[in-house]
Amino acid sequence: MKLLFVCTGNTCRSPMAEALVRKRLPQVEVQSAGIFASDGSAASHQAVTVMEEAGVLFAHQSKPVTKERVEWADLILTMTEQHKQLLLEQYPHTAGKLYTLPEFTAEDAGASWKLLQEAYADLETKRVRFASGYQGDPNRFQSEFMQAHEREVAHIRELEAAMPATDIMDPFGRSVDVYRETLKELEFYVDKLAEKIHNEK
């Protein structure tokens, strides 16, 4: 498997994830890149500090996302939903291999999205029906519709709250303690990634 991690500047999150995968999954070919990265910038000193604390080899120079790197990868994992959407705009053909790291590793993400999409579709059908027979003040339509379908709206909010997180916290420019928290988050998801790759063999 060829795996590409993507973040913004390729000096914190994606290279940290890359280094963790190199240690945890030596059989996986892995690279990292940044959507707005330049070539050859050093990793942030806070990232170097926390990786050394964790005993992970971490020698890194930043690289930008390129067509060649995108084509090379069998799987592209971004740090945030925004990174994912930006890549989809530029490389729409990657849709089948492009996920956020939390999204890809969440066991129930697909089922959760399906339930949420069905609930949205059901509410939209009811909104169209409500609109067709609505005789009140047009300015009050939305609030009256929401009140009339309070239970459905509450259900959607519950589903949204239960959705797996899709973003890895950005520690850029913050304290070493924040970088430690980001590292813990990355370690959690890389462990889940390792389990998923192992189970798919």
TrEMBL record:
Phosphotyrosine protein phosphatase I domain sequence ranges: 1-196
Protein's UniProt name: Protein-tyrosine phosphatase
Presence of the UniProt keyword Hydrolase in the record: yes
UniProt lineage: Bacteria, Bacillati, Bacillota, Bacilli, Bacillales
Family of the protein in this entry: Belongs to the low molecular weight phosphotyrosine protein phosphatase family.
InterPro entries, per database record: LMW_PTPase, Ptyr_pPase, Ptyr_pPase_sf, Tyr_phospatase_low_mol_wt
Residues at the active site: 7 (nucleophile), 13 (nucleophile)
Matches recorded under PANTHER family: LOW MOLECULAR WEIGHT PROTEIN TYROSINE PHOSPHATASE (PTHR11717), LOW MOLECULAR WEIGHT PROTEIN-TYROSINE-PHOSPHATASE ETP-RELATED (PTHR11717:SF31)
Any one GO molecular function term: protein tyrosine phosphatase activity
Keywords per UniProt: Hydrolase, Protein phosphatase
